[in-house]
Amino acid sequence: MVKSNNWTREQTIVAFNVYCKIPFKSSSKTNPTIIKYANIIGRSPSALNMKVGNFGRLDPDL
Length: 62
Hints:
This protein is mainly alpha-helical. It contains 3 helices and no strands. Helix content is about 60%, strand content about 0%.
C-alpha cells in the first residue's frame, strides 16, 4: 500500500493563508510562521515552504 502525500483542501487553504501573511522573500523552512502552521496541518516546514513557493510562482506581481 502506497501512502498518499496529496494535499487536502484544508491544508491548501492554510498554505495559501500563510502565503498571504508573510512576505515571499522571508519564506523559508526556518520561518517561525511556516513552522507553526506546518505543525498545525501535519506537514513538514519544508513541504509547507515548497507549497508557499508554488503559490509564489503563480503570482504575476513576483
